[in-house]
Sequence to fold (610 residues):
Amino acid sequence: MTNSKEIYEQRENIQDLEEQINELSKINQDEESRQEIERLRARIERVRREVFSKLTPWQKVQMARHPQRPYTLDYIQHCFTDFIEIHGDRKFGDDHAIVCGMARFHGEPVVVVGHQKARDTKQKVFRNFGMPKPEGYRKAIRVMKMAEKFQRPIFTFIDTPGAYPGIDAEERGQAEAIAYNLREMARLRVPIITTITGEGGSGGALAIAVGDIVNMLEYAIYSVISPEGCASIMWRDASRAEEAATALKLTAEDLKAFELIDEILQEPEGGAHTDPLAMARSLDEHLQKDLARLKSLPIEKLLSERYEKYRRMGQFFEKASAAAAHRS
Amino acid sequence: MAAWFKKEKTPIASVEQKRVKTEGLWTKCESCKQIIWKKDLAANFNVCPKCNFHFKMDARERLKMLFDDGIFFELDSDLATSDPLHFKDIKAYRDRLRDATKATGLKDAIISGDGALGGRPALIQAMEYRFIGGSMGAVVGEKIVRAIEISLQRRCPLIIISVSGGARMMEGAISLMQLARISAGLARLDDARVPFISVLTDPTTGGVTASFAMLGDLNVAEPGALIGFAGPRVIDQTIRQKLPEGFQRSEFLLEHGMLDGIVSRKEMRQFLIRSLDFMMAA
Ligand SMILES: [Zn+2]
Fold:
């Protein structure tokens, strides 16, 4: 990070403020010191926001790809119980870049589907760096259709550089597998809650991300192409990725501004990897709220809202006669 | 999109081809290298009379070739992108759009046609490769979704002729969401049992293949078309695997079970009419 020194100094600053709060709350319990504590807390929040709002899109790309960032299995461990993994697409193989299974969410039976990355070299190869092949997408939709059959809500977690671009994946119909999932998810008759936790790498991410609600972690990214890929095509120079990251408008803030996602979930200071437990706890709260809302909708309303949600994602055109951009 | 940019950078025409082209009346087939009279080529729907190589064809020409008597009403021709990202690389997206419009007379990369096919009302949409590599942004998405909704309402078949490098980078994640948006529309068309036929032509890659182009009741391709998710250059660069002979061509996909058939351009209209005869009440 180019301004890491500044971030470091500001962190010290925050720690000082936190110590002051601790001191104050130890000595005094009166109204005046309570107000003082409130004031300090607000200041911490302000400083914190300032520091991390300064992260450039490229720095957010680094955060989204941070090797210590929590992955789907971490969230499954912290937010769900009784997880039983379901393997294989019953057609070709078991893709380890996507994990699927039955689980309980606060006691309720649900299905969980997510991309899975890994931290050490051997595991990274086993997980194919989180890049699924057709069998991964086919496993995912098979398990999601089982969820539909038994009327269980679906949670999906998105974190992939993209669908695997290899000969075998092409031979087995990578494009068809993704396309099929997009169409089928659009009409699954159960609630679908999607969270972009790390990298939302193009079609390979979207293929399990057609949710009724789509959340995005604060430092996650979601893009039509990787900044490196964009740079090598548009600038003919992969080293211009930083510029491409800015141009692509791929941060959670950007996606929210374009109304392509529903909510940005705040991360612990310094990113989800600095406190995975706190991240999981706040994610858990959001997911409970989301599930309660979706379950309150009659199924036909849920489906028509889902259609309308995606139907709106394209009001970015103008008629030749009208000067102003039309966005309803 | 890669192929389109690559071409701009390194024109593939050899010195000899350039010389031939300047003569105006003649052209050289990219495949069999024989000299063809341009009039013969045009009369043969841009297919080489000597080796059956399928040259690219403009969207409007395709629609004229398919609709009864070559007649159709064009829908939504005035939709244009608002450049929501204000995207700029070495060139501004606005300028690319202006140039593409100048070259094609179109405001975006697809033409929607409303007419009759074999005496039956039908909507046919054809993508235009000369418009930023046939890439798909919000306008292509909007025009397809509108066509789907008309098809649903009238219960008339929808046919899309694809030629595209995929989702359009210059509209970022908005382009990506067009995949989900169009696929959601096609789910409704499928539920209503209204026919949708996808025709893939050279090249069809990326987000277009990974959405509507692979979701037809029938997915058919012209001979020799490059069809895939990742382009061959991307595979070559990221995986460094040697690509097999004929990889990602129509014939390769047919052998791997990914296409319902290969239909030559001259047979396409009859193929579509006969398929609709099967799918729809007389
Ligand atoms: Zn020829």
Summary: Chain A touches chain B through 63 residues (CB under 8 Å).
